[in-house]
Every structure is written in structure tokens, then in C-alpha cells.
Amino acid sequence: MTEFSGKRCEDTIPELEQMERIQLFDKNETRAILKEREELELKLKKHTLDTKSKEDYLEYIKYEMNLLKRVEERRNKLGITQKKSAIDYAIVNKVKRLYRKAIFKFSDELRFWTSYMSFCKHVRSQSCVSRMLGRMLQIHQKKEKCWHIAAQWEIEEAKNLENARTILLRGLNLHPTSPLLFLELYKLELKEEASKIKTLEKDKEELRASVPESGKESSKFKRTEAIYEQAFKWVKEIKFFINLLSVTKDYENTDALQKKIINDMVKKYMNEPLVWDTMARRELQGLPNPSSNDTAMEVDGTEQNSLRDRITSCNEVYLIAVKKLKSEEMWSLYIDCLLEINQDLELLPNLKRKLLRTALSQGHQAKLLKEQHYLHWIGLLNSDKKDDASQKKLAEVLCHATEALPNSEKLWHSRLKYLLATDTEDSVDEIFAQATKLLGEKSLSLWRMKLLHVQAKNPEKTEEFFQTAILGPPHVAKDMKTTYLEWAVLSKNIHETRDIYSRISLQPPYCIELHKKMIEIEIMQPETNVGKVRECFEIAILQFGGTNMDVWMDFVNFETNHGDPVESAKIHTRAVKALIAPLVDKFISEYSLLKADPGSISMPQKS
């Protein structure tokens, strides 16, 4: 096998010699290429046939593709165009051979097939792929994605629509309910028939003689309509038909086909919010919809020309929809559409704003408004002029929002922010207590906001606030303990800060960050009190020494840099006994590294 690998590498020597001869690479570089190829060939052969590594093939392929890129870059840099076929094509063919061997040995791996196709496309060698598609489909016929990949290749790369049609029909025979294959076949037929119709329309006389003016365009799309009929029979996903409709509207002379799809959707999926959303958005775009005589939608089908009419018609469809369906999803689709409309306020700004505000208010009254829509509503009110009426309305909406969604941290945050900004102290305390009780662990942002307010307005009450906060939910208490310590060191002396630390460090919930912060504060003092730092470490070890390796390493590092290096060995012994088994080996390893390089792990230094 080694001899066979060597023979294959020898076969590449002529192309390497060509590289040297035209000065694309020097002798050392070509030797390095040959050596790398030999090593990669040996990797492929070192396993038995049953255990050959897929990654070895991928590594070899990646190397050759990078080499091809290097060759191209050298050619461009040096302006060398000679021997392109002898060198570049040789590398390309080598990559192809590697892909084919990988595919033969690991035919169940779809990534080899798709990567091979991508490579062939990159080097403009599409004909190689078409020959392998049949084998891929034979092996992976149970994967509808493979039929889709093959059909797309025939359409986009091979430009063979007949082959693509055949592949899709065969795929649908095996996967009769596949939206993916039906959509691809529908697009193929629609595009082909639309192209033929466009050609016919160039001759106006022929158009008048052959096409009736009564709007029966569907007769022009016989094959497309046949595919649609089969799809409607087998596929049960509403999104699929919306996709069909979206594809169809991009082609001329498809009004009748669009109406047929819409009528069928309405009859079968009338209680689906996405159907109503589609209908409303078509009104906004000025596209044809069925009239009240055609369906149960009760929507005027007259084409709207002006933007005002289109927006109004769109809104009317949504109003019918939310009345019939009464669901959060329907209201969400309605308001999302109005938000999109309001992104451009250059035309009809008053109408657009009015419709959005009305919808938000009605959605709230129906108790079907989502958090994000309440936040949009609050944002709108915040942007209004600051008169008494607008402020009163904002306060009402904030109150309604938190009542409707009491577990929303963002809505409570908005409400508390408003109250703090308007200096309504009594309401702030009441709402803050209500919100933090409801939100529990999720209320940290409210505590932080209230703290900033207390520090700004009533600094004398700051410590009282901290003492309340550290008795709050665990997540809040941990964060506030560290913040309390930071505040204390800036507002008081070191002795009072130590007293606060001694008290809150032993009070659950325990917080590793609190100990780190106090150690940092002690080390930053003009004269480091080694005994006080050790006390902090001992408390941290008592609470976290079994599961936190870092606290031991920090302790060792402190003794090395600031304390007594002899103590490091004792700390090591204690750590090995205290840590849980999975952390012991890692600790020993890091301890050894620290001893070899004491500067590898750093503690805070004095400023």
C-alpha cells in the first residue's frame, strides 16, 4: 500500500517540476508540497478499509484546494499564465479524484456529495456532477432534500429543465406530501409557461385572437395549475400555499391563478391567522383578492390605486380578522403590519399613526397584546409632546400593560422609570414593592434603577436600601452585596467596609464575587494587611472550596506574591483534599504551571 501511495505522489512530480520551471514556486516549496502529499497519502492508507477516517479525506481535499488557491494567487501576483492546464487542472483533477473516492467509501455521508458539487461549480466543471446525481439519488432516495438538490443543480447549473422536471416527479412519487419538491416543480412550470406567454404577447394580433379578455388567464398555465391541484390535494401546510402565492404574484397574467389559490386557501384554512394576514397584505400591495361573492372573507375585491385606499383596505381586512379569530397571533400579525407601515412616515403620517394607536388600544382591550407591542405603544407615547393629557395617557398604558402582563420585567421597568422621572415617591415605593414581589429573581434591573434613584435623591437612605436589597431574592442579593461593598469603600473608611463584609459574607446566599471584591479592596490598600486577606480567602474556601478551583489558585498566587510562599504548599495539600474529584487533576496541573512561572496567574496589584 505504501508503494502504491508513493506511486501516486510520483505521478504528481511533473506538475511540480512545471511549477519550478516557470518560477511559480521554488525548489524548497515544491519539495514541501511533495512531502505533504506523501504524508496525506499515508494517512489515507494507514487504516483498514472498514475504519478509514473521513476526516483524513477532508484534510487532504482541503490541502489541495488551498494549494489551488495559492497557485492562483501566485499567478496573479507574478503575472504568470503559462502551463495553466498542466498545473491548475492537474490539482483540480486530483481534488475530484479524492472526492469520488470519499463518496465511494462513505456514500452515506451527504456532505461529501454536496461539497463535491460546490467544488465542481467553483471550477466550472458542471458536467462531472450530472453524471453522479443518479447515484446520489439511488443511495439517498429517502431524503427529499437530495431530490431538491439534484433538481436545483439541473435548473441552475446544467440548464436542463427536462432533467429537473423528471427528477422532481420521481421525487414526488416517493415523497408525495413534500412541500419542498412541490414548490420547486411549481416554480419550474410557472417560469417556463410564463416565458412562453410573454413571447406570444409580443405579437399583438396573435394575442387578441388567442387570449380572451374575460380574465381567464389560468388557461394559459395548464401544467402549473395541474401541479397546484396535486399539491393542494397532498400538502397540508398553510405556509406552503402562502409561498406559492408569493411566487405566483411575481409573474404577469397570473391574476386568475392567484385568485384560485386564494379561494382555495380561504375555503380550507379560513381560521388560520396567516391566511388573513396574507389577504390584508395583498390589499396593501394593490394585488387582486376575491370579492365577497367569491368567498366568505367579506372583503371588497376592487383594486385600490391610491396609498390611502390600500392602507384603509388592508386595515379593514385585519379588523374583520381579529373580530372572527380573537387570537393573540392574529392581533400580533395585525400590529406588526401597522408597525411596518409606520416605518415610513413621509406620506400620510397622521393616518398611519392613528391606525397603529387605535389597533394597540383595541388589542389591549381584547387582552391579546404582546409585550413587544406594549413596549412600542409606550415608545410612541414617550415621543409625544409632554402635556398633561399625553402624560396621563402614558401612565394609564403603563398601568394597563403591567396588569395585563405582570411577569414582564421590561414593562415593570418602563413603569418604574416613568414614576421615578415624575417624582411620584409614594407611588414609586408601592409599585417597586409590587413589581419586585411578582418578578422575584427577574427583578434585578428594578433594584439597580431604584438604587441609582436613591443615591441621587436621598443619599442618606442608601445603606438602608442595601440592607433591604441583600435580603431580597438570591440573584438580587448576590449582585447587591458586591455593589454594597463597592459603595462602602468609596463612602466610608476601610474599617467600616470590613465590618460590612464580615456581616454580609456569612449571610446566605453566599457570593464568590463578594469575596473577590473584598480581597481586591484589601490588596489595593496603601499597606496590605495579609491577615485580613487570608481571612477573606478562608471564608471563600469554607463556602466554595469544594467546587471552585479558582479560589484555591488565587490563594496560592496571593501567598506567592504578597504573603508567605511557604504557605503555598500547605494550601495545595488542603485543596487536593477539599476539591471534588473532577477538579483535582486540573488544580494540580495549574499549580505546577504556576510554580514553574509565578507570573502566569495574576492577582490585583497596588495602583
Describe this structure in words.
This protein is mainly α and 607 residues long. Among the domains are: 124 residues, no CATH class; 82 residues; 123 residues. It contains 31 helices and no strands. The longest helix has 25 residues. It is flat, with a radius of gyration of 36 Å. The protein starts with a helix and ends in an 11-residue tail after the last helix.
Question: How many helix segments?
Answer: 31
The geometry reads as: flat
The share of residues in extended strands comes to under 5%
**Rounded average pLDDT:** 88
What is the structural class?
Answer: mainly alpha
Task: Report, as a whole number of angstroms, the end-to-end distance.
Answer: 66 Å
Poorly predicted runs of 5 or more residues:
1-7, 214-218, 292-296
Q: How many strands, which pairing sense, and closed or not: the largest β-sheet? A: none
Rg on CA atoms, Å: 36 Å
Q: Which percent bin holds the helix content?
A: over 70%
Which key terms come to mind for this protein?
single chain, 607 residues, mainly alpha, 31 helices, 74% helix, disordered N terminus
Task: Offer a concise description of the structure.
With 607 residues, the chain is mostly helical. Among the domains are: 1-124, no CATH class; 176-204 and 217-269; 485-607. It contains 31 helices and no strands.
